[in-house]
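Lab notebook, page 48
Experiment: co-folding of the full assembly
Goal: obtain a model of how the components sit together before planning crosslinking
Operator: M.T.
Materials (sequences as entered):
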Amino acid sequence: MDHDDLLGAYRRLRLLREFEERTRVEFQTGQIAGFTHLYAGMEAIAVGVCEHLTDEDRIISTHRGHGHCLAKGCDPAAMMLELWGSTDGLCRGKGGTMHIADFSRGMLGANAVVGAGAPIAVGAALASAMTGGTWVAVSFVGDGGTNIGSVYEAMNLAVVLQLPKIFVIEDNGWGEMTPIANATGNRDLAARAAAMGMPAVAVDGVDFFAVHAAAGEAIARARRGGGPSTLVASAPRFYGHHEGDPQLYRSREEIADLRRREDCLPRFIERVTTEGSLTAAELAAVDADIVRIMDDAVAKAKAGPRPVPGDVFDHVYARYR
Amino acid sequence: MTIKSMRDALNEALHHEFERDPRVFLIGEDVGGFEKDGQPVEIGGVFGVSKGLYRKYGRKRVIDTPISEAAIIGAASGAALCGMRPIAEIMFADLTAVCFDQIVNQIAKFRYMFGGQCACPVVIRMTTGGGRNAGAQHSQTFYPIFTSFPGLKIAVPSNAYDAKGLLISAIRDEDPVLFFEPKVLYTEKCEVPDEAYAIPFGEAAMPREGEDVTLVAFGQSVNWAVQAADELRKTRGIRCDVIDPRTPSPLDEETILESVAATGRLVVIDESPPRCGLTADIAALVADKGFRDLKAPIKTVTAPHTPVPQARELERAYLPNPRRIIAAVEEVLA
Ligand SMILES: Cc1ncc(C[n+]2csc(CCOP(=O)(O)OP(=O)(O)O)c2C)c(N)n1
Ligand SMILES: [Mg+2]
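Observation: model returned without errors.
Model output:
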């Protein structure tokens, strides 16, 4: 990665983090409605993958979708407006936190039904293959979501049809309040995917560079017609399953310890500053800029136009009746 | 007798039945807990309905599962076929779509298709309905669709007292029961006896009585109907029967037809969309069997024929409310 790529990656990582920190604050003031799942702690996965993608490439996200949206280039203000339920939000207030989408960016939606995105993304990859495209489709699914049967149906179909499809499994060790050990018989998630007949690797999802390298390989393979792959990346979830989750199932110390040891941002900073590829001043300038962007996004969201009752009938069909 | 929330009332029902019948077990996502350093860590359900069960009965009877709805329902029904009394939990009614086959082609059919050889006494508990801005995939009711399947029984409590008695009946029933818990009502409170009691299926409740108009409502809509009835009585002297069928299947047709015979006017209320739903079903029942009693056309108050929108203003516009019910009552009285 050259200097600009590195700075761009840092910018995105910081944006994802700040977006969630601000969402958390605003959620606590009662501004944001709905079950809100924060991506903080897992930023290196979305950014490490999406840095390889263009607007033409498609992704499908999960209930924990803010990070994937931002990594794919969605406008933070338009996302914040959606969290606020404004008609200027990306889905005009119809979707909210669990359903942010921006088709102009190849972001085919966050999805509140666990596992549902994997087969849909296979269809996106099928469209690419059928139209001779060079674009790829990526689905994100959590470790818990890998126990949904249709994820394996999707994997098998992608293998059989040799589609340009990447399955990214985000292993944060938890499905809501249940630890992975209680829910997943074979903890080796890459092996489970490999058993379907495709290359599958597991990387440290806290290490941006590890994710970036592995994703680059899988995406390049898909682009040249080499078929699907799975990438398993493990990273912690810093906050509760959703905002308002009191986290009685893990201790404060455990969470503080994760923050100390498994934070992708300090890891990234340490590496680039040690190597001398980015300076502290450059990073500080990005940080200041991101704060400004988030202030602006929240201000816009607060002032955003509100829906009116008749809007419920928009977008049910191409034409209603 | 004490004041209890619907969450606590349901929790008591589970405790009573676990105690009473060793064949009863609970299976679902996050319903129990896990061991950490040899110590139990309780989850007790994401809405807290099953708290205390894991501590008391352990993983043997309080089974946390992977996120695998089809496997949860399949496992529950297979165990029921072999003599167990499973209670399966699906976190949101919307997610039954992931295990629809297991419910409607399998569980609903076993007794009939196998010529009465077997029973499949499984209870499937789930949260239902809107009001929490949870968006299009976590706010649907789904009980109308399931009501259309013969072989399934459907319960939708509207208050803590009914919730406890209906859940106990559901667990003791010889047939499969889909039990819908309106998620906004978990914190709503009323008087609930401490001891176990069963409310029979197919018997409507009548939270308000009056001779002018019949209101039939389901789930959380019952509370809006009661508010509307109280308001109409106070401000206009209009008296309404408010009927809560409690179990859409089996349905207490008699109570509805008797009420309409007395009032001659009917408004049916449900938060589901209007097509092929419970409001159309009740309207058809009365048109078929009580037409001559009617003094005015039947009115329904429902959600629009749209998915559930997320933004606060939009969900508010989507859901029925007392004001819309009052307007419908005025129409049938005009
Ligand atoms: C099919 C389905 N089952 C259950 C749920 C409820 N639910 C929402 S998120 C979640 C946990 C998902 O865990 P995981 O896939 O590991 O993602 P994470 O939340 O850890 O990012 C569950 C059970 C759902 N939305 N969809
Ligand atoms: Mg997880």
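Interpretation: The longest strand of chain B covers residues 85-92.
Next step: discuss with group before ordering constructs.
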